[in-house]
Amino acid sequence: MAAAGWTFTLGLGALAGGPAGGLLARRRGPRRTALTAQALIAIGALGFAALPGQRGLVLLVSLVFGLGAGLAYVGFANLITEAVPDERAATGTALIAVANQLGAAAGASALASVRTLHPVGPDGTLFAGTGYRLAFALAAGVALLALLTTYRMRHGRTPATGGAAARRTDSSTAVSVDSAPTKEKI
User: In which element (H, E) is residue 170 found?
Assistant: First the structure.
């Protein structure tokens, strides 16, 4: 419970990041939303790696990291929706949800393993700051790798439509939403 007093702004950032991510994806495109999210997560992870001992800095770093997490959830879902054909949209968004869960589980396990390489104390149940710094530095590296991968994507460069504003036909021409069934109608 005491840790929550140091990181509650992470949840607030994530809460704000969702709606902000939706607006950003609609105005600037989901790719830009995902890039912003990954940059904020990397900055937050590097901030945690520096382990500022002052509560105000931890709260600020938590807010940045949380905002990135909220933007990421929306940005990736929109990016996948825009990247796959309409008939695969449900599968694409389901796969991103599964990938989020698997990534969180695998990442937490891997980073906890890194942290445990630096135990302190007689029974080895306390961990030195070195382990935490290394784990968060690795998390920042993964976020930067994801950022570079997303940067190379060709999808999501236009404002997000959620698949409803236009559909591609076999000849790759846009058809207005009035004349084409939307995902909601299918």
Answer: none
For the chain, the straight-line distance linking the first and the last C-alpha, in angstroms and rounded, comes to: 47
Q: Which one, of 74, 47, 4, lies nearest residue 139 by Cα? A: 47
Q: How far apart are CA 23 and CA 10, in angstroms?
A: 20
Cβ atoms of 35 and 21 closer than 8 Å: no
Task: Give, to the nearest 10 degrees, the angle between helix 129-152 and helix 89-115.
Answer: 150
The 10 Å CB-count burial string (b at 16+, else e) for 51-85 is eeeeeeebbbbbbbbbbbbbbbbbbbbbbbbbbbe
- CA-CA distance, 145 to 66, in Å (whole number)? 19
Sign of CA dihedral 124, 104, 60, 40: positive
CB–CB of 63/13 below 8 Å?
yes
According to DSSP H, which parts of 29-125 are helical? 30-49, 55-83, 89-115
What whole-number distance in Å separates Cα of residue 75 and Cα of residue 150?
A: 11
Residue type, 127: F
Average pLDDT of each block of 10 consecutive residues along the chain (186 residues)? 78 94 92 95 92 80 95 90 86 88 89 78 68 86 93 86 55 46 47
Encoded tokens for 118: 């630096």
- The label of the residue with tokens 């036909």 reads 169
